[in-house]
Design brief:
By secondary structure, this protein is of the alpha+beta class. It has eight helices and 19 strands. The strands form three sheets. A nine-stranded antiparallel β-sheet has the order 4-3-2-1-6-7-8-9-5, sandwiched between helices. Strands 13-12-11-16-17-18-19-15 form an eight-stranded antiparallel β-sheet. Strand 3 and strand 4 form a beta hairpin.
């Protein structure tokens, strides 16, 4: 009997040990939350909205629309910085945990200067919300803090040396797509180019029937060429309007009012099949006046490789710094459409 009691006691003790061996780790794990260190979103296709909030600046909201992203419901985003931040979300990892003695100063800095980033899925459900700070002194990596946490971490992306903050710190104009003209040539009803320094080279392309065009003078007092325009040349010109990009968006340029107070050199007018329109006006930059080719005539005097850049103003209020080399194939003469 005594022996049986001893055996029973051993069985009970082993059972208790086995129970806590199985269940105690689970209980411990449940008591710890490691979400404050989980910044990566391995499948970035689930991200459908990004909000970036900087102190003393308007929030930027990026929404996925097919293969593109729209900023603040109005502007198409430049895909290069978008791809860069998606790569951060996908590949970010912990470099190291700062020492406890440094945390108070790090958090003070984060509260004053951090950039808040919010990620949402297709159903507008939050995926991650976190803050991006500066870099540790004399070290690579960037401070990140998850919303609701007081535990900053130094994060990095393998192969990237520097502060990840720069990938979130662009202005609106830097985030935007750099296209000045981005047209589907098959939906164009009319394109007119007026050269104010050379009226006789100005022209207007008009669709007279499905994908068949006529080329006419752009000014009322301009002589009309009585010949059939070459359709192949017209189509080549229209396809040149598919994507003309600027060097920079210059909406914050300090002397912009002085520039647009000058006489324009070119107007580009576009009308689409749905009757929507776009107008782009080109101006000389004052500092490039000396590059005007006085020994040349017509459009060659102002539109040439020596005058490297111009300011383009669109009818929606944007200003762009454009390069001659990018736009030169649409700076053609009225006569060039005829044999």
């Amino acid at each position: 009997m005594k022996r049986n009691l001893i055996l029973l006691s051993i069985v009970i003790i082993l059972g208790i040990v086995a129970y806590y061996t199985v269940h105690k780790p689970e209980k411990i794990i449940k008591n710890y939350d490691f979400s404050y260190r989980e910044f990566a979103v391995r499948d970035t296709s689930q991200i459908h909205k990004i909000i970036i909030i900087k102190r003393n600046d308007k929030p930027l909201k990026f929404e996925r629309l097919g293969s593109t992203w729209i900023i603040n419901g109005k502007y198409q985003a430049d895909m290069t910085p978008i791809v860069n931040i998606l790569a951060v979300f996908k590949r970010i990892s912990i470099q190291y945990v700062p020492p406890d003695a440094a945390i108070e100063n790090i958090m003070k800095s984060m509260m004053a200067n951090s950039i808040k980033v919010e990620l949402y899925d297709k159903k507008n459900k939050p995926i991650k919300k976190f803050y991006v700070g500066g870099s540790p002194e004399n070290s690579y990596g960037t401070y990140f803090v998850m919303e609701g946490s007081a535990k900053p971490l130094v994060m990095d992306v393998p192969g990237f040396k520097g502060n990840l903050r720069v990938r979130f710190n662009y202005t609106l104009d830097e985030w935007r797509d750099k296209s000045v003209i981005k047209e589907d040539p098959l939906t164009l009803k009319e394109v007119m180019i007026k050269y104010y320094m050379d009226k006789n080279s100005s022209f207007k392309i008009v669709e007279v029937e499905d994908e068949f065009y006529d080329v006419l003078p752009a000014f009322d007092d301009q002589r009309k060429i009585n010949a059939e325009p070459e359709q192949v040349i017209i189509e080549s010109f229209l396809f040149g309007l598919e994507n003309k990009k600027c060097e920079y968006i210059e909406n914050s340029m300090l002397d912009i009012n002085d520039i647009i107070s000058r006489k324009p050199i070119v107007d580009i007018f576009i009308k689409r099949d749905d009757n929507s329109t776009k107008t782009i006006t080109l101006y000389m930059l004052p500092k490039l006046d000396e590059e005007i080719q006085e020994d040349k005539k017509g459009i060659d005097k102002y539109l040439n490789q020596n005058v490297l850049r111009y300011i383009a103003k669109t009818d929606d209020g944007d200003f762009f710094l454009i390069q001659y080399e990018v736009f030169k194939d649409i700076f053609v003469r009225y006569s060039s459409f005829f044999k």
